[in-house]
Structures are given as C-alpha cells and as structure tokens.
Design brief:
Layout (H helix, E strand, L loop, with lengths): L6 E10 L2 E11 L4 E5 L6 H9 L6 E6 L2 E2 L10 E4 L11 H11 L4 H14 L15 H14 L4 E5 L7 H18 L2 E6 L2 H7 L2 E6 L2 E6 L1 H6 L4 H6 L4 E8 L2 E4 L2 E4 L8 E7 L4 E5 L5 E9 L2 E7 L5 E7 H4 L7 E6 L5 E3 L6
Parallel strand pairs: 3-8, 3-9, 6-7, 7-8
Antiparallel strand pairs: 1-2, 1-4, 4-5, 9-10, 11-12, 11-14, 12-13, 14-20, 15-19, 16-17, 16-19, 17-18
Length: 350
C-alpha cells in the first residue's frame, strides 16, 4: 500500500544539562524495514524516537528521511504516524471517527476518510467495533485503534513508543504479532522502541541495543542473540550464566569442553563465559561433579539449576518433559553445546 522510505539518524547527540541522553547515535534504516530499539530505561531510545518525530531537538547531528534533511522541520510537517504507550484515543468519538481524525485534519473528503478508516479497521480486525467508543473497548482493542489511526494517514514512517507495555502478557503477545503482520502488509518503515527483549526479537528485522545514549549493536535478531558484540548486549539479551573459562588461541575451555570464543571476548587467560541457558546440557551421572539444586517449571520449558563443584549455580533450559527426569540433590554432569561463547574479563563480572 505504501512504499517505505530510508531513514538516517546521523551522529545524534542530545544533552540535557549534565546528562547526555544521546551520545553520537547513528542509525540507518532501510525502506520498509522495522527496527526495534531495545534497552533499559534512560538509555536514550525514546529520545531518539522523539527527535525523529520532531517532538524533541537534537543538540547536534542530522535526521534524513528519503534522503532529505528534516532536522529543522516541525513535527506536524514530518508525516509520521505515532503510537504511544497510552492509547490517547478521543473519548467522544467513535472508533471509526478516531481512525479518520488525521485525514479530517488533512482536509480529505468525507467519503475518502470513511473508506480509508474502514480499510484500516479491517486491517487490524476491528471492523465490527467501528461504532463503539473507546471506553467500550479493551486495552488491546484500543491499541489496535491507535495503530489503525496512525496508519490511516499513510505516514512515511511509523513510530511505536512502548506501545504494548500497558497490556497484560497474553494480549501483548497477540498484538505484537498483529503489529508485525500489519507492518509487513503495509510496508511502512517503522521504528519500535521497547525495553522487552522478547518483543524486539520477535517483531524486528533488526534490533539495536542501546546503553547510555550509544548503540551497542545493531543486527538481525538471530545474529544479535547468537553473537552479542559486547558484554552489555550479552547480558541484556538473556545470556545470564557466567561460567569460569580459559581462553587461548580463539577457543574457550569451560565445563570440560572447548568451544569457539566469540568476537569481543578477551584475548587469552582466565575469564567468565556468558552462556545461554539453552546452550547447557545436563546429564544424570552418579559420579557427576555437579548437583541439581532446583527445578523451575515455566510451561513448555523448564530451568534446571545446578550447583557446580566451585559452589556457583547455573541454570540450564530444556523441555519440561526432559526436566522431569531430574530431582533436587541428584548428581549430574553439566556440559555446553559447541556454539560460541562470549568470554569477559573477571573484573567485568558485576
């Protein structure tokens, strides 16, 4: 329906008094791409989105959309659709009129407004609710209306600022998948800001992990997950077991196995390998040097926590049917899959 445009944020800084909210952020988005900016509160991800929207001004750096510098352009001339955490629907308007509102402000005819609004409500699966008011809808439905409203004006860029964080877990997952389906169908270049790693990895073409105003890594979800470029990314994207390891000539030796040391690891010597729970193996062995300390049931998967001979505890993830074979106090051997690990200096083990 719409063709995406390229978006370039070039060397953006944003300084508020002593605080550097953005510290030289450069991010280039391909036409039609969905990029998720992921990071903890205060890392600068919302500041970047607000600067792109024209709701905030960069201290230095430029914003280009479709090759044109829009850094000095007011927000209402930027042609962007926005969906916030708060649905911000007009309570006195029906769902249909809410979706058509932006078109009315742009002077479109009534027949064009209604046709486009109906089309967008079809797209988000809410055509049957078009004559209701916001307070008659659930939170998830209101957020779908907000998405339909943002897309109705055929924006060049869609900006989603934590759009799902006010919803409960089940609705959040449904709506996350829905947003991705709609975005692929419409083809709008989209920036999605979230602090939820599962959300970012599930919907985005590429995920940018931010920390203290800087972009730590920008990569496809699977790449980011398998090959974190920095300890911060490894920590933030769920590599949460730290296992003593010895690095030499590009390999890390840990848990009795040698595996490749990922780029960004220490060059040699002793360090801590950051190992994903699903990369650990647990085998029942009567003379094993580790002991099962607890088993946490998480639905289809479970975590089996084991105490190693040095007293440290690590968690292995497996299917719940596999986990049922283990009981607390059982002697086991813990191993690691032959995929690569990121090894950090022991001092960086905070």
């Amino acid at each position: 329906m719409t063709n995406g445009v390229a978006v370039q944020l070039n060397d953006l800084t944003r300084v508020y008094g002593p605080v550097k909210a953005l510290d030289g952020l450069t991010l280039h988005m391909e036409p039609g791409e969905m990029v998720a900016l992921l990071g903890p509160s205060g890392c600068g991800k919302t500041t970047a989105l607000r600067i792109l929207a024209g709701l905030d001004e960069a201290t230095s750096g430029t914003v280009l959309v479709d090759g044109k510098d829009i850094s000095g352009m007011p927000a209402n001339k930027r042609d962007m659709g926005m969906v916030f955490q708060a649905y911000s629907l007009f309570p006195h308007l029906t769902v249909l009129d809410n979706v058509a509102f932006g078109l009315k402000m742009r002077g479109r005819s009534k027949s064009e407004r209604m046709s486009r609004a109906n089309e967008m409500l079809d797209l988000v699966g809410l055509a049957a609710h078009k004559h209701k008011y916001a307070n008659e809808l659930s939170g998830g439905q209101q957020q779908r209306v907000a998405l339909a409203r943002a897309l109705a004006v055929q924006p060049r860029v869609l900006l989603l600022d934590e759009p799902l964080s006010a919803l409960d877990a089940k609705v959040r997952t449904q709506l996350r998948d829905e947003i991705r389906r709609v975005q692929l169908e419409v083809g709008t270049t989209t920036l999605f800001v979230t602090h939820d790693q599962e959300e970012a990895l599930a919907v985005a073409d590429r995920v940018g992990v931010m920390s203290q105003g800087k972009l730590e890594q920008l990569a496809a979800p699977a790449e980011l997950y398998a090959n974190p470029a920095t300890p911060f990314v490894a920590e933030f994207v769920g590599l949460n077991n730290k296992v003593p390891a010895e690095v030499s000539s590009g390999n890390a030796r840990l848990l009795g196995t040698s595996v490749p040391a990922l780029a960004g690891s220490i060059a040699g010597g002793r360090g801590l390998a950051m190992v994903r729970p699903e990369s650990l193996t647990v085998t029942a062995e009567p003379d094993g040097s580790a002991t099962v300390s607890s088993v946490a049931f998480l639905g289809p998967t479970s975590r089996v926590y084991c105490t190693l001979d040095d007293g440290s505890v690590i968690g292995a993830q497996m299917t719940s049917s596999q986990a049922r074979a283990f009981s607390v106090g059982q002697a086991v051997t813990v191993g690691v899959e032959p995929t690569g690990v990121l090894v950090i200096a022991e001092s960086g083990a905070a």
